[in-house]
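Give me the 3D structure for Putative oxidoreductase.
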Amino acid sequence: MSLAGHSAVVTGGSRGLGLLIADRLAARGCVVTLAARDEDELDDARAKLQPRHPQVAVRTSVCDVRDEAAVDAMMRGAHEAAGGPDIVVANAGIIQVAPLESIDDRDFAAAMDTMFLGAAHTALAALPHLRESPHGGRLALVSSVGGLLGVPHLLPYACAKAATGVLAEGLHAEVAADGVSVTAVYPGLMRTGSHLHAQFGGEHTKEYAWFSALAGAPLISMNAQRAAERIVHALVRRRTRLVLTPAARAADLAHGVAPALTTRLNSLAARLLPSGPRGREPLREGKDVASPQGPVTGRLQGLGSAMNEEAADAYNQRAD
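Predicted structure for Putative oxidoreductase (320 residues):
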């Protein structure tokens, strides 16, 4: 379906999945506003997208989704520059990978501020425009398989994503009568290169090792371009819920049918993950934990991280 004449906003749009979703929207003829915190990353993202889609405008807007006023201003700016927006994707997020003993309430607060409140600010600022869209507004909130069940060593992330999923489902019920569709998106692991910007605690290199290996493993993770295409297709079709990757769908089904058993299996999986020192230490980004030439990454090549490293180059994850 063509989206010519539509205007879209994608938060977290400067790299990774957000950048790919913006690419797929622009490919359908949609004017796109990329919103993120880092101006340099946004400039790099626009430089990647605009030559691919010269028929539409690719805009950028520096915006911290944790700041309600900033989100309101960003949405007004998108409306004044490009009309609409008719489509909004709340995708901004952070990933914290650490055992429970190495985190505290500050990490939960950071995850909730960025992913849940960020999605809420985005949705609430967008709804007045989406209600007025002549095309019928479309809103997508990106949750995660971590929002479907508690994933060990990803607890702050999982809690925030669970709240985001509930927000999407509640909004769908409340705004359907206004002609606005809301899609809750639950991706599984994807090869986006996000391991370089994920934050790691506890035994940093070991946490980085297991996460980056799984995130890049071909049989477990999903090609991010295919994921972005499916998300945009779900938006166009006004689907209520989209769960991506066979592993995520299996986890969703298992937790729905046998939640107690799934929780016990999660407990067994947690025992296989690295333990960490008690007490919170500063989390470190993946790009600071191991270099592409380092021994950790070298061992991971055979486990699938090579594909994730290629994705990092392609999807603007190398920017500092």
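Residues 46 and 58 are 6 Å apart (CA to CA). Let me know if you want a second pass.
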